[in-house]
Amino acid sequence: MDAFVNGIRLFYEQTGEGRPLVFLHGNGEDHTIFEEAVEALFPQFACYCLDSRGHGWSDEVEELHYRDMADDLLAFLEELDLRDAVLCGFSDGGIVSLLAAMETDRISDLIVCGANTRPRALKRKAYLDILFDHRRNPNIYNALLLREPHIPAEDLQRIRARTLVVAGSRDIIRGNNTRLIAGSIPGAELLILPGEDHGSYISHSDRIAHIIMAFCASGKEPTWTV
């Protein structure tokens, strides 16, 4: 399916019925990374898996900015009139989710996975790998990672959605930045997954589905082992 927002055609797949659950993928990926999660979730949720601008089957763009993608998400929620939504964003999708959640009351539950608030929050090796790859093969995806985001901690305090911040114990995001995100969002919970890397619990995995179901069950505040 297609949604037309902000002069951009966004492709999305919608599966199941029930409470809306929106998935946002990471840099250079598309909605298909959530196929296994959706398979576990669609009996309970109406799952909306988007391709961000410049990704997958959505319109191509000349450059990428997180703010533009957040504006697309906000417009998407309004276009489909989604309310009391669960939003799960991974990596770049997590950054976009943070920015969007500051601006809307349509998101009730927020699951942010592998997000960062600044480029240098990437561990040194990961940052240098991206930098060297971009020098060899300049592209809009690496350019985005090297230049953005820049999210002050005080801006995160504007988020009112019930929030879970997730990362792998072997993530490419520095642990202090993950803790900063969780500590800055009012009432946010933090979950560090032992042995998992940046996307091993997300990409073609149903593990994130079980985390979402546990977090959303009955609206109760979960107790996580960190």
Report what the structure shows.
With 226 residues, this protein is α/β, with parallel strands linked by helices. The chain has eight helices and eight strands. The chain has an eight-stranded mixed sheet with strand order 1-2-4-3-5-6-7-8, with helices on both faces. The longest helix has 14 residues, at 66-79. The termini are far apart.
What labels describe this entry?
226 residues, alpha/beta, Rossmann fold, 8 strands, 34% helix, globular, disordered C terminus
Which helices and strands appear, and what pairs or packs with what?
Layout: E1 2-5, E2 8-15, E3 19-24, H1 35-41, E4 45-50, H2 66-79, E5 85-90, H3 92-101, E6 107-113, H4 124-136, H5 140-147, H6 153-156, E7 162-168, H7 175-184, E8 189-193, H8 207-216
Parallel strand pairs: 3-4, 3-5, 5-6, 6-7, 7-8
Antiparallel strand pairs: 1-2, 2-4
Helix pairs in contact: 1-8, 2-3, 4-5
Main sheet record: 8 strands, mixed
Widest sheet: strand ordering: 1-2-4-3-5-6-7-8
Helical amount: 25-40%
- Principal-axes geometry comes out as globular
Quick overview:
This protein has 226 residues and is α/β, with parallel strands linked by helices.
